[in-house]
Design goal:
6 helices; binds adenosine-5'-diphosphate
């Protein structure tokens, strides 16, 4: 894991120092200078995203994090999370809708944790769905409690990779993921957050037609619920 993190940090860092050194040593024209600065900024942001995801993951994975369960309005939370992604989705021509099932408008879970899960799943859905696509968040009553499902009409994942995508830094296409701002940690964060609730995750996908990630949240015991 440390080797992976070091490698993920080293690549943008090498680029940042390389371009900064060139800027100092040469006096490039204004256009080139701007290009170099944009590359430096892009790589610094990539490192920032990685460090943010690492902090989220280590907090949840450490075992010290305990969900503080409260009643969450699913549609409201989804709309809130979507606000940050709506601009990118609109530009990409990707539509979003939420469908809450009968008896599944509310989820008993950690609000910050659920936001983290939705942010990562919707971010992936936007990233891997081409123009004209659609993303749907569904909630339904399930045997174990409530199932939250994010479905997209995107590129899909080849079957042989499905069992591994929840692993840290596992990517189907590493260069595409990096180029599009992925850290390779999103689904690991989702899995650990849901498992910290005693739940589980699942993924189904059809190459070329879309992906569906499901998170099952069990009904918490009454003494775990902090506010209602
Ligand atoms: P990343 O930051 O690379 O998206 P994730 O952990 O979120 O990392 O996902 C791991 C890999 O699973 C991705 O690199 C991508 O190959 C695949 N993946 C995740 N979500 C989707 C999706 N909605 N559609 C297609 N591929 C996906």
């Amino acid at each position: 894991f440390v080797a992976n993190v070091s490698h993920e940090l080293k690549t943008p860092l090498t680029s940042i120092s390389g371009y900064a050194e060139t800027l100092l040593a040469e006096r490039p024209d204004e256009r080139t200078e701007r290009q170099f600065l944009e590359t430096i900024l892009g790589n610094a942001r990539r490192m920032q995203r990685l460090v943010d995801d690492l902090l989220d993951l280590s907090r949840i994975e450490s075992g010290r994090w305990r969900p503080e369960v409260a009643a969450i309005d699913i549609a409201e939370t989804a709309a809130e999370v979507w606000t940050d992604l709506a601009g990118r989705a609109e530009e990409a021509g990707v539509a979003f809708s939420t469908e809450t099932g009968e008896g599944a408008a509310t989820l008993l879970a950690d609000p910050e944790g659920v936001r983290l899960v939705l942010r990562n799943l919707l971010d992936n859905a936007v990233r891997y769905t081409p123009r004209g696509g659609r993303i749907t968040l569904r909630s339904a009553v399930a045997e174990e409690g409530i199932a939250l499902q994010v479905e997209d009409t995107g590129s899909g994942i080849p079957q042989e990779h499905l069992s591994r995508v929840f692993e840290r830094f596992y990517r189907v296409d590493p260069s595409r993921s990096r180029a599009e701002g992925g850290t390779g940690l999103g689904l690991a964060i989702v899995r650990h957050t849901v498992e910290a609730h005693g739940g589980r995750v699942g993924i189904e996908s059809q190459l070329g037609s879309g992906t569906r990630v499901t998170c099952w949240f069990p009904v918490p015991s009454p003494h775990d619920v902090t506010e209602m």
